[in-house]
Write a structure and sequence with these properties.
Layout lengths: L1 H15 L5 H13 L3 H14 L6 H12 L1
């Protein structure tokens, strides 16, 4: 639980600083999925994939594909 709180705080700080980093969005998607917010997680991952050509995350890609098949 402590690691999740730390991750959420780091994402809030990055957002306040105006940073939009693919890796941060992949993490945000993972946290959303863990919270049961499947559609928001999928949308977040799609946004992250589009942020930067070649930006990718294996776990996010697999999870996004699994959600698409459901």
């Amino acid at each position: 639980e402590k690691r999740r709180v730390d991750a959420e705080e780091a994402l809030r700080r990055a957002e306040r600083a105006g940073a939009t980093l693919p890796r941060a969005e992949f993490l945000r998607g993972e946290l959303l999925l863990a919270a049961g917010q499947r559609e928001r997680a999928r949308a977040t991952w799609e946004r992250a994939f589009a942020l930067e050509p070649g930006a990718d995350d294996f776990r996010a890609r697999i999870a996004s594909g699994t959600l698409a098949l459901e």
